[in-house]
Amino acid sequence: MGFATNAIHVGQEPDPTTGAIVAPIYQTSTYVQTELGKDKGYDYARTNHPNRKALERTVAKLEGGQSAYVFSSGMAAIDAVFRLLRPGDHAVISEAVYGGVFRLATQLLVHFGLEFTFVDTSSQDSVLGALRPNTKMLYVETPTNPTLRVADLAALGKLATDRSITLVVDNTFLSPYLQRPIELGAHIVVHSMTKYLNGHSDSTGGAAVLTRPEDAEKIYFIQRSAGSGLAPMDCFLVSRGLKTLAIRMLQHNANGIAVARHLDAHPKIRKVYYPGLPTHPQHDIARKQQRGPGAMLAFDLGSLDAARRFLNQVKLCSLAESLGGVETLISLPALMTHASMPVEVRERVGITEGLVRLSVGIEDIEDIIADLDQALLYV
Description:
Blueprint: H1 3-9, H2 50-63, E1 67-71, H3 74-82, E2 90-94, H4 99-107, E3 115-119, H5 124-130, E4 135-141, H6 153-162, E5 166-170, H7 175-178, E6 188-192, E7 206-210, H8 213-226, H9 232-242, H10 245-264, E8 271-273, H11 283-289, E9 296-300, H12 304-311, E10 318-319, E11 329-331, H13 343-349, E12 355-359, H14 365-376
Parallel strand pairs: 2-3, 2-4, 4-5, 5-6, 10-11
Antiparallel strand pairs: 1-7, 6-7, 8-9, 9-12, 11-12
């Protein structure tokens, strides 16, 4: 079956009891046992429930993994994956990573004996130079948030396999429709399902997709023990959103390309960060491993004052955290998504005070561009 067919049907079969084309929301905390020690597959909602199991089947199928587990947020899923490490283990992470991941690693996980090195994962030499005898994990965002650097996943997949290192890829920015990390060598894929998988800005959720049974067993133990599994209503909302993922990503991608080209030619924009532009340093790699450049881009207005004047004037574009919704969302990473990063780290990886991140929605492209243009008049 094709991607769109799987997104609509796998894990979303009609309810066997009533024939309802949309399965019910199992809004219950517990399940009655038929007799002592015997149940119908479920005992307590923290452990599992039908909506979670159905969503996990869908996500695993779309990413090409053997199994998947869904969590209360993207950060909960990422935290669970890092818990596969043990005290004394070392992980290499993309240096331009989402601010929440940087905070999790440097302010929380280090206190449990884990070691982290942040490098430019678009450079294989940089990755090689960061490896240690105790390196157990390579955690890659591609494209990175928000500077849109692209890592060569096939090359990193081979490196990870040769060195017996677990390659984890955050595929949130592109979704499995535009990028297939497991096919390129990833062992684990993580998502903030809050973004493109749900697509409607009405639910939070995260996912970890596994290729190895031993990882799956550990991740499920963490999910069950920590109580971080996704609730029934949120599972229902993400499952609903996934049904239109393919068609949404086509429009997101088309709009992203149009906006990037328009901004790249605008005299008030200093620089546009977008893998779909030929000037992007990893443009050729992106074309090789991505089905499209996607709808995430960033552009530099030169200063915080210019960015503030611009952001205070947008009308159709919504000034808000998050991304991947059907509506166009715009933010200033230095003061929003990456505010927890030290200033010197932000400056080193290119997150300037004038850098604006744009998640291009699926509105009429003329309206998106018109809103950006009128706001740029104030810069």
